[in-house]
């Protein structure tokens, strides 16, 4: 249990919770839409069972993702995806949830929640796998704890979180920069550029704290700059 006294463990757990909350707004909308036609007596069951099934699938996906991040170049790809996700968080496009069908049958609603969450959880899976990558043997525990803490916030406190984001946009900007920070750290620790024994012909980066922090800062600033640039272009594109 010594890992519980490690600052890195708690920092990573905090990052995972923030990622879940910031990227989980769509999941809360899906849950509401899928259960909207259920009788009141079954609505709570639909939310609880559907969310539980989604959590189990999410943990399995993240476990696979953390394993795959040990394959050369996949961290590079994951870092690029995280940068894009962070940019879209700062400069979001139009999201359409109109194709989520509600059902008046409990199990049909539960299936809708699980399937929709599976399709929409790619961004969460990549971001959380990146945040948990440095936790060693306790990375899966981090993921499970983060989900257990953040899912109730998403499901029952989503409206409060949405209001806070609307009132304090800096929360969304900081979340996008956090994804860029994680992306920078992922990129420089990819086995292709970090492991001298792996693909010796590749350019190698020395794995020092200075390089890792510099890459993380660069990733955060890149997401901020590109996100703000794209956000500034959106009104012009709408006018055209």
TrEMBL record:
InterPro entries: Integral_membrane_TerC, Integral_membrane_YjbE. The keyword Membrane applies. It holds the Pfam family TerC. It is found in: Membrane. Keywords: Membrane, Transmembrane, Transmembrane helix. The chain crosses the membrane at residues 12-35, 47-67, 138-156, 168-193, 213-231. Its main location: membrane. It is a multi-pass membrane protein. Belongs to the TerC family. This is TerC family protein. The lineage of its organism: Bacteria, Pseudomonadati, Pseudomonadota, Betaproteobacteria, Burkholderiales.
């Amino acid at each position: 249990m010594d890992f519980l006294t490690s600052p890195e463990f708690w920092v990573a757990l905090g990052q995972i919770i923030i990622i879940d909350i910031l990227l989980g707004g769509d999941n809360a909308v899906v849950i509401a839409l899928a259960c909207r036609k259920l009788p009141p007596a079954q609505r709570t069951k639909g939310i609880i069972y559907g969310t539980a099934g989604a959590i189990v699938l999410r943990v399995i996906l993240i476990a696979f993702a953390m394993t795959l991040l040990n394959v050369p170049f996949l961290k590079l790809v994951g870092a690029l995806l995280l940068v894009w996700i962070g940019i879209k968080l700062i400069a979001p496009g139009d999201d359409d949830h109109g194709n989520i069908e509600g059902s008046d049958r409990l199990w049909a609603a539960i299936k809708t929640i699980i399937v929709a969450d599976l399709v929409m959880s790619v961004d969460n899976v990549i971001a959380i796998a990146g945040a948990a990558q440095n936790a060693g043997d306790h990375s899966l525990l981090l993921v499970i704890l983060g989900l257990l803490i953040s899912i109730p916030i998403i499901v029952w406190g989503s409206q409060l979180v949405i209001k806070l984001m609307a009132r304090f946009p800096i929360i969304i900007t900081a979340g996008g920069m956090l994804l860029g920070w994680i992306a920078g750290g992922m990129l420089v620790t990819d086995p292709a550029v970090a492991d001298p024994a792996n693909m010796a012909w590749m350019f190698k980066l020395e794995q020092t704290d200075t390089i890792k922090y510099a890459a993380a800062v660069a990733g955060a600033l890149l997401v901020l700059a590109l996100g703000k640039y794209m956000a500034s272009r959106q009104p012009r594109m709408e006018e055209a």
